[in-house]
Design goal:
Blueprint (H helix, E strand, L loop, with lengths): L1 H6 L15 H18 L3 E2 L4 H10 L1 E2 L2 E2 L1 E6 L9 H10 L2 E4 L2 H10 L7 E3 L6 H5 L7 H4 L7 E6 L8 H11 L6 E6 L8 H10 L6 E5 L5 H4 L4 E4 L9 H8 L4 E4 L4 H4 L6 E4 L4 H13 L1 H17 L3 H18 L2
Parallel strand pairs: 1-4, 4-5, 5-6, 7-8, 7-10, 8-9, 10-11, 11-12
Antiparallel strand pairs: 2-3
Length: 333
């Protein structure tokens, strides 16, 4: 983060470590936070991590001025319900911004909060810039894929929570009925799981010739330009899920699990198919339906592209964030 702050000439100080619990570091972060707020006297404080939330809450009063405190949450896990966290969210924080409906529900259930205090603001994505790219057209040749093959793909690191095993098992159930379908698995190895592990599974499922492992790709648009269907079979995580917006920008319909933000972005029957997390039967059923109906794929892909260009823009995200700031400021005056 410090590197891009320096690049954009944004004043910053990376000398403190707010994540450290050692007394020296805690005192250093406390001193730096207080000095910074006194120097710049901001009107709004918007931390995105728990340590920042704590230190800003302790220093929000600068001399006679008191800044608005907005907590932005990009975390897929439920909040901790200890006394400090309750005090921070219920008593000190003016508003809470979350990235999806599931996170909002968790905060309303975990703390005593007025519903209007927790606002959902979807991530913004620069779709127009992302779409300004001309693929090389060499992807299929490099990976030995025939031109008439229908490609479905998952673009993600190979971590277990991304659901690759779940996906391979579902794809194996329907592959015999779609002889020209190929599953593209693009992404780097993870510590817990590698392409070698998944290749071994594909052999066990008797579909090694139907799955293409690309490894980490330099530009995901080379893959997405070739896909007829984008897959997000995640078992957890996905508080933001940028890859869904990337698929949509390229007009690729999506099959995704109902994890965190995914049902908010992938609208069932509009720009894709949503299936229950971990349900192999429903995932296979959705794959079968999508692969059997090219007009429907194109229709949902086109709707996804429209949504990416109109509903998930950076401009919309900024305006909704500013609206939360204004609303919180009006209540404090």
């Amino acid at each position: 983060m410090a590197s891009w702050l320096a690049r954009d000439r944004i004043p910053h100080d990376a000398s403190a470590n707010p994540n450290s619990v050692t007394p020296i570091e805690v005192c250093r972060t406390q001193r730096l936070t207080r000095q910074t707020l006194r120097k710049f006297r901001p009107n709004v404080l918007n931390p995105h991590c728990p340590p920042g939330h704590f230190f800003l809450s302790m220093n929000r009063k600068c001399d006679t001025a008191e800044a608005i405190l907005i907590r932005t949450v990009g975390e897929p896990r439920p909040p901790k319900k200890n006394l400090v966290n309750r005090w921070l969210h219920e008593k000190v924080t003016d508003s809470i911004i979350v990235t999806c409906s599931a996170s909002r529900q968790r905060y309303l259930q975990g703390f005593h909060l007025q519903p209007e205090k927790v606002q959902v603001i979807y991530p913004g994505f620069d779709s127009e810039t992302f779409a300004r790219y001309t693929p090389s057209g060499d992807f299929r040749r490099r990976h030995g894929i025939k031109n008439d093959a229908v490609l479905v793909g998952v673009v993600a690191r190979l971590s277990p929570e991304k659901g690759h095993r779940f996906l391979l098992e579902a794809f194996a159930r329907i592959s015999a009925d779609f002889s020209n379908a190929r599953l593209v698995v693009a992404g780097p190895n993870a510590r817990e799981q590698t392409a070698g592990d998944l290749k071994k599974l594909s052999h066990g499922l008797r579909i090694p010739d139907r799955v293409i492992f690309t490894g980490e790709v330099e530009d995901v648009r080379e893959v997405m330009a070739e896909l007829s269907l984008g897959l997000i079979p995640s078992l957890c995580s996905e508080a933001i899920c940028r890859v869904a917006l990337e698929y949509m920008t390229w007009g690729v319909p999506i099959v995704a699990t109902d994890v965190n933000i995914l049902p908010d972005i992938v609208r069932d029957d509009r720009n894709g198919w949503i299936v229950p997390v971990g349900d192999g039967d429903d995932l296979a059923k959705a794959l079968r339906h999508a692969l059997s109906n090219e007009p429907e794929r194109k229709k949902r892909g086109a709707e996804g592209k429209r949504m990416a260009l109109t509903e998930f823009t950076r401009a919309r995200m900024v305006e909704e964030t500013l609206a939360v700031y204004r609303q919180a400021g009006a209540k404090n005056h």
